[in-house]
Amino acid sequence: MMLRIKRVPTIVSNFQKEEADEDSRHAGGCGRNCLRSCCLPGAKLPMYAFKKMNKIEVEEKSAGSENKQPPVPFLDSLLLGEDRMQRGLFRYDVTACETKVIRGLYGFIAQLNEGRHLKKRPTEFRVDKVLQPFDENKFNFTKVGQEEVLFQFEPSMNNEVQFFPNAPVHIKNSPSVVAINVSPIEYGHVLLIPRILECLPQRIDRDSFLLALYMAAEAENPYFRLGYNSLGAFATINHLHFQAYYLAVQFPIERAPTRKITTTSRGVKICDILNYPVRGLVFEGGNTLEELSNVVSDSCICLQENNIPYNVLIADSGKRIFVIPQCYAEKQALGEVSSELLDTQVNPAIWEISGHMVLKRKEDYEEASEENAWRLLAEVSLSEERLHEVKELLFEAISCSMEEDNGFTKNILEDSDIGLNLSKMWTPLKAPTLL
Amino acid sequence: MESQLGLIGQSLDLRYSVWVREALNELPDSFTITDPCISGHPIVFASNGFLKMFGYSEDEVIGRNGRVFQGPRTDRRSVMEIREAIREERAIQISLLNYRKDRTPFWMLFHMSPVFSKEDGRVIHFVGVQVPIPRRPKYTGCTVVRNAVNSCEDGAHFRKGMFGCCRREVCSDTVMEIGRASSLDSVSSPDDGEEEINEPCEASETEKGKANAALSNILSILTHYSELSGKLVCGKCCCLSGTGRLVSSLNISLGRIKQSFVLSDPHLPDMPIVYASDMFLELTGYARHEVLGHNCRFLSGLDTDPATQYQVFFFPIPFFILSDFPTISIM
After folding, report:
1. Residue A5 and residue B63: Cβ atoms within 8 Å?
2. Nearest-CA distance from B18 to chain A in Å?
3. Residues A9-22: pLDDT tens digits?
4. Interface ipTM
5. Quick one: A376 exposed, middle or buried, by C-beta within 10 A (0-12, 13-18, 19+)?
6. Residues of chain A neighbouring B253 (CB-CB closer than 8 A)
7. Which of A31, A369, B166, B226 could form a disulfide bond with B201, CB atoms 3.0-4.6 angstroms apart?
8. Is A239 annotated in the active site?
């Protein structure tokens, strides 16, 4: 079944038109009109101020027509704009890339994208360490031109969604921005860069993860997902960023059945992914968005600190989060990946793991099958035993931080129905063994 | 000029004769009818059984989307399955945790089925039936086990199946035995309520039977009352392929675009309109069924008020469609 992306022109809003005229004003500085101190002072960028809502409010907001519509429909107008295409900012035309859904149980998605491989920025750092310090000399997002920035993304001051087409950039507020991804895999592929001016390295912290969840919730669309790749799990830039795009089909990983492991005291449910080539965890529930966010970010922080590369998928408008530890880069380095798979040159980052396979060679695309996709992704997965060890680390980390949050010392984990032996969970942290 | 509320009110009236609401409310079951063609896919009818079970008044429910009855413990994957069933316009039967108005959660078997227009085969409504799944008690105390074992023949097998609520191994007869035994020694602690809710609840054949029966009754009422109005419906899709229609879930997404526009399908003979936005209908004064299936040229017919000047743009739309339909062009 062949899918075709029909590109359609977008509304160039009055806001954006004005901005284009003013762009030329800031041609001073380094001449690149970038985001550093040479060009940024005095710059103005659109700003989307989101409302910090708890979960109940989210449900009521999306239900009733009695609630006010946001001033600008977030996803439709802001994120899928095409005028940047016309301005030649993209490295290649993603809409010219063939895409198809592979016949099979899960519906893996294959895209033939010969340009991305050649024109994507190459990785500039070592791949065996998840935590690496930020390096000013390497590429980072403050070096991009302001024309690549779609808007600043900040919480609203007055608890109402607001859009400002021309907001000054307040350096002291450490703004977060959404920028276009010049190496897109899909139409509307954007980057969320939390606190861009702070030049944070690629590592998750509670605040930035929460921001990513707010963005997913704001889009209110289960087909708009956010993804994160840690260093060592095929992130290419060591400057904290999330990716996001819209694809109106289910991801195979979203279809996989799950089995509950436990529920935390704040109501966050943690499950195993079953019947899927890659093993990992799914987080959902929680009485508020913050509670869900904190459990997931604490898990990611634990993985980072134990040098375990991982990928994250934020799905279902921020209500379902997949955390997948992986080991492909290490296997590659140790020469344990078959040449057949290496020849495809597919680097299994979060989108590939989710089931959207970006293929670089025509023959791989022509012969794409569920078995091939499965076989590739199976190489990415941690083994059952290794994942078990990782889970032990995670649960210990989560319950420790839950205790800090609550100020209690009671047993946090309520109900562990299958698999994990309670006594084993409380043993001290072991040094992670090599896979 | 149709406001959102007006559209919701008319949703049933346009298709079925005016007595349909009374007939539907004669059924004791809890069910809702939703309209996927209205933006937001709102509820357009809720039975008295539904209002009673969830604790809402009619005003509080009509116009809302079904997701308001979900909550933090509702399994997201189940919600996703329902969403996909809507998108693929097929029936689904699934256990789901819902929340009443007072936010108390309860398990129910949710059985949803599309209603198709006989004329052009598109989905005009979804019917959702809710059958509560009674909580199978979970016991941890030994006393109860002993009593129950005594009162049940199949002792050993029963004992294994007793722990954990809603397990299939616990047959309904033994559940009643437990019930009787438990009234003698109540051992369930206050915490149990919480844990029971977390356990996924499987529906038994009883619930499934009730759901199927209810749905069948509802569909026959709808079919009957659609005959009276002349706009026939049926429970199965029986359209001829080639009639242009958009998947109902696409309607929901398109409904969020607050512009006047139509979509026509160039792959069908005479390039008919397959979607018209609410604002377009407001602007032109046509009703939806008068526009769908016709080519755009009807806009400039003799009927057009010469005093009114329309400016028809090839209107840019800020999104793309990735679908398995033949390419749709945008006007």
Report:
1. no
2. 25
3. 443 333 333 344 44
4. 0.76
5. buried
6. 221, 248
7. B166
8. no
